[in-house]
Amino acid sequence: MVTYLNKEIKLSASRQLWAITRSVLEINMYKTKKNGKKTKSHWDEFEALLKIVKFILKSLSLYDKGTERARQIIPKKVSLEFDNLPEGFSGYKILHLSDLHIDALPNFEDDVIRQIGDLQYDICIMTGDYRKEIEGGFGQIIEPMKKITSAIKCSDGTFAVLGNHDTYLMHTLENKMDIQFLINESIKVSRNGSSILITGTDDPYSYYTVEAAHSLQADFDGFKIAAVHTPELKNIASENDYKLYLCGHTHGGQICLPNGKPLITHQKEGSQYASGIWHENGMIGYTHNGCGVSGIPVRYNSNGEVTIIELLKKNRYENN
Length: 320
Ligand SMILES: [Fe+2]
Fold this sequence. Notes:
Largest sheet: 7 strands, mixed
Bound molecules: fe (ii) ion
CATH class: Alpha Beta
Radius of gyration: 19 Å
Number of domains: 1
Order of helices and strands: EHEEHHEEHEHEEEEHEHEEEEH
Strand order of the largest sheet: 1-9-10-11-12-14-13
CATH topology: Purple Acid Phosphatase, chain A, domain 2
């Protein structure tokens, strides 16, 4: 059973205020960071560089191989143990999807749906970046997202946060499909007489606001999960006793050297936060490699993933 801490979540004053603030940042192409930095986005320059790299890849006949690899999504299962997980949630499974960038490759939603297949899970959490570009409309992702959300079958629903590629207007997708955005908001999930809390924040990579940090100070005495687009809020989450932090954004590098080392991860937290499991001050974090791709729609020496995160009660696991 899922309970919204704020029952009027779609109409709340805080959601409206957030939408106004986010729209101003988007219109002015401002990037705001946790350290107080406010800069103009230089995406145009980055796009120009991408065009040159794309031309080189095509000239070397590597482009088609890269798009083919980008469609090779791998199903992953990650089991994580926690001391303070309520017994009733041991074995609880989260379908973690991230960085769908669903319009980057034609019919990419079908590749994702194929991997979701018959997987068994209790809830779905999406950690941002639904479209390829960082600006413009999002009409092109509505039907593919509808197909994906329809393919997700679980008892506790689908919850999503926004990434740096997403416009604030996407929160209206809630009215079109079975998805609920968590924008500096929390939900309580209950089963077998106990509850856990899931908090989702707005993207801190380009649109950090203090409200995102405040949302991670949710007053809840129990097991808490943070869903954030990037690893950037890990310290705030761990200091506030969150035990699991789910994020994406890095695409696991997307373009990696033959030894798997990423060339670019678009994050400055450290290489250990670029992919997979990491630990921070008693909290376990997981950086999803992304389902999809952005920029140049290719992968080299890297795979997209569809991930099941299984929560296990620590002592119960040891007794087995
Ligand atoms: Fe992304």
